[in-house]
Amino acid sequence: MSGYRKLLITLLSVAVAILVLGRSSSKAAANNDIVGSGEENVCSDNGTTEQVNNVCEENSDCDHGNNDRCVSFCRQIQPIFDNRCTNCHNPDLFRGTLDLTRGNSYANLVNHPTSAVCMSQVPDSVRVVPCDPMASMLWRKTRPDDSRCGRPMPFGSDGLGVIAPAEFALIERWIAQGARNN
Question: Looking at the structure, do residues 25 and 98 belong to the same domain, yes or no?
Fold first, then answer.
């Protein structure tokens, strides 16, 4: 009986340990605390959270390594717009015929032609060309690049690339990775 009791206690201890470890792992994964898991929770268009693979797949249209961590539009790019751009680029002011508010920004940027004024200065210009930062007016205006139309952005600055190089680098990587809506 004594050996049976020890075996039962050992098995119960192992089972409890497995349950505790399983719960803590799932909570960490839900909070994106597991490094290198390759997946993350991101916002979808309707505001819900979904899990996506966060390691960029090799894309024949893009020239980047397949182990790059994907820049999340919802979690990394949109907050830059919210902080630096939406005071002017919103439905009320609509500067440059561009709305960069949450829920509208992606559709107004990716593969979208620039405003008529910008188009008159840089014919056939596109706001964001997936996989091609230098062809993207967003990149040119925030870098700033001499081939841009109008002033550097954010307005009143020398360009995001000058005032906030880390934020500019995120935008550049997001475009280079295919400008995913993730």
Answer: no
